[in-house]
Amino acid sequence: MPRPIETFVLQWGDLGGQWGVNRSIGQIHALLYLSERPLTAEEIADDLSMARSNVSNSLKELLAWNLIRRVPVRQDRRDHYEAETDVWEIAARIAAGRKEREIDPALAALRHCSAEADGDPTVSPVARQRLQAMLDFTVALDRWYGQMLSLPRGKRDMLLKLGAKIASFLPKEKG
């Protein structure tokens, strides 16, 4: 494996660990992302010096996140895998998975706690206000996520490129 590819694979695995994803999953995703052809589990295990069982479990996780797919290869009965290579699609799929696993349960819990707090005279007004603030923030984040996904790709690209330029049009806050 060429040095720059090896470096990317190792670093993507380390970053995955920081994002709460098993290092092996990150490395396999990186290898498949950079591969010019679909790879078998055996090839992945050999290239990354990983146990076949670890590769198998990691592939299942990547399939569940919809970041890779099985593809048929002519005259080969083994499973071959390739990664999604469109970075917007990768980001959208990761965001959708995280939303489902993190934001949706947080919203449900905050809605429940806020509703219970509103009807409970033993909960202080400060605690109710803070629960509502957290709920409002999470609802706004969820709404923003939906808006970003509903934008046509060209507008998302434009919005990303505008970046900090948009912030320069906002009024400056004192303080």
TrEMBL record:
It comes from the Bacteria. Residues 20-78 form the HTH marR-type domain. GO terms for molecular function: DNA binding; DNA-binding transcription factor activity. InterPro entries: ArsR-like_HTH (IPR011991), HTH-GbsR_regulator (IPR052362), HTH_MarR-typ (IPR000835), MJ1563 (IPR026282), WH-like_DNA-bd_sf (IPR036388), WH_DNA-bd_sf (IPR036390). Keywords: DNA-binding, Transcription, Transcription regulation. PANTHER family: HTH-TYPE TRANSCRIPTIONAL REGULATOR MJ1563-RELATED (PTHR38465:SF1). Belongs to the GbsR family. This is HTH-type transcriptional regulator. It comes from Methylopila capsulata. The lineage of its organism: Bacteria, Pseudomonadati, Pseudomonadota, Alphaproteobacteria, Hyphomicrobiales.
